[in-house]
# Entry
Amino acid sequence: MNARSRTVTDQHPAGQEVAKRAAPTDGPLVWVDASRGDDADQRTRIVTTALESGFSHIVVPEADRERLLALGRFQPLVVKDDGGPGRLVVGSDGPVGRWITLRSKADEEAASALAGEIETLVVSATDWKIIPLENLIADYQPTRSRLLADVATAEEAEVMLTTLEVGTDGVVIAPEDEQEVIDLAERLRDRTQEGLLLDEAEVVSVTDAGNGDRVCIDTCSLLVPGEGMLVGGSSKGLFLVHSESLESEYVNARPFRVNAGAVYAYLLAAGGRTRYLSELEAGGPVVAVDHTGRTRTVTVGRAKVESRPLLLVKARPLAAPEEEYHIVVQNAETIRFVTPGGGALSVVDAAPGDRVLLHRSDKARHFGRAIRERILER
# Structure
């Protein structure tokens, strides 16, 4: 232990507040299909339930588009025949993708040919045993095109999202009733509550890093003691940076804020992807994590970039002392790391031998996606 005056805070009993449910904006993309059938009242109920469940992309009949838009703000999607492969999907600002029904190997090949060429492909199939979904997932995974599977129930959606371990990028659910929409929202919320594995790490050094631009993430949620965000100089090792939910003798608590680090750093964002801190902007989803690894999705209200003095912190996980990770953060008493047990260690007090929490991954990143590729980050 360091004999100097320290700023280490014990776990706060309010930590149970972390268990509040997140909106289903984290993870897979979901479209709700309210375009099928002739029952206008049923269509209204499905659209209303989708909005209340946090789903913003809804497929509607073109003839009923304006009436349904009066129910709330959402992205209306209309499916049209245009003579191309499958059908065209059009949003408010123009085409967003294509929708192909798979009945034969030729249909599968046509769907595969669109990988990397369009924004989104929706695939339907009467029998997924005939058209293996794995083939399409393998074709679309290396590209920036998104692959969505057409399903009828929340249970089917769960299967599609976990096929080949990776799963599709999302689903289009065409429910018989609004309860399926509710069930899917609950399943997705449960997925976001699954814990991340956090490792105990030992601080190796804390050194001056000059001046630079750092990012404060002000969220639309109140964070609690023991909770923060995962940030780091390498996507393979992310430090759990504490929120400003603790009182200080210098400034009042800002429980909506995480002073995350320098602009170059990676942040764990929605869907298990990483984002550069410099990319964050209002309205985007990011992931808050507590000391147990429990996660929830919060929305960025403001990403504030300012020039400040910086510190470089290096640490090694106890479970893999041959590995070393770093983070560059502002040199200020209010910047803290979450410690084992849910405490908080200020960066100005951090010293070699102190313990902090890390999330490690054995995968590199390409455009924020986890990939298996040899990348050396120093």
Remarks:
- The radius of gyration is 23 Å.
